Amino acid sequence: MEHTKTLAHISCEDVFKIYKVADLEVVALRGLDLEVERGEIVAIVGASGSGKSTLLNILAGYDLPSAGKVSVLGRDLLSMNSAEVEKYRRTEVGFIWQQTGRNMFPYLTAIENVELPMMLIGEVSAKRRQRAEELLELVGLSDRMSHAQDKLSGGEQQRVAIAISLANNPPLLLADEPTGELDDATANEVMQVFESVNKELRTTILIVSHDQDIAYKVDRVVLIRDGKLSTEIIRYKSDKQESQTETAGDSTELEEFVLVDGSGRVQVPKPLLDHLKIGRRAKIRIDNNGVILEPGDADK
């Protein structure tokens, strides 16, 4: 029986991004492949300069790749004109910045900030207010709707930012280091809000982070290194954790995989290469135990 593959929410194939800095070319992405299914919560984790924010900006429609294919729900981002890109940003994707103050207008209240994106697409006043109230209740701020930015804590501002990003009911939510300026306890609260949004609205969520511990709070973590995806960590919940709320990490199993891209390329972790004393060359062969990687003659 032939099975039809489900359309991925995000699909990136052999994506490159090259920036010109003075007379130098900086390669931010180097043949990156990525697929995110509908309804997943996925984190992209990497060091500064690894290319994770570049990827997020491309998916948000703020930037274009130098080469490769990028699609969101089958829509080719590279073929859109300026009007289509603007509509995509307003209705198809929500974006949250790391800097809490960048997500809100300081002279508007929380509920006015959430209503604003709906005004831009012509939503009527009564529906705007009802939707804004529902979203602020969803993120746990029903008692803070009339407060402006300076009356909200950093965590509350990020929760308002989540509500703003969901105002026009986008199926995809992108977040750039949303907990980077928060303490651990507040960061955990914000991550719980993402989980609630995913559960209630089935929104696909992609989070960029530098914290590998986020693996305990999302479905899947993909590590990016030197502009390519290298490894993936999948979280498995126990039956007990599915049925009741527990502390992050309890009854949770993590499994790590090395990723193979569309061209068959694999990034072997450097500690493993060092352990095997593999330098510039390696030999690969198959035996009864699987694929064997060993040093080339020149490296022995």
Describe this protein with a few key phrases.
Rossmann fold; 300 residues; 8 helices; elongated; 13 strands; seven-stranded mixed β-sheet; alpha/beta; single chain
pLDDT below 50 for ≥5 consecutive residues: which ranges?
A: 240-250
Global structural class: alpha/beta
CATH topology of the largest domain: Rossmann fold
Described by strand count, sense and barrel closure, the largest sheet is: 7 strands, mixed
CATH architecture of the largest domain: 3-Layer(aba) Sandwich
Binned, the helix content reads: 25-40%
Tell me the number of structural domains.
2
Mean pLDDT: 87
Look at the structure and give the CATH class of the largest domain: Alpha Beta
Strand order of the largest sheet: 6-7-8-3-9-10-11
Multimeric status of the protein = single chain
The geometry reads as elongated
Number of helices: 8
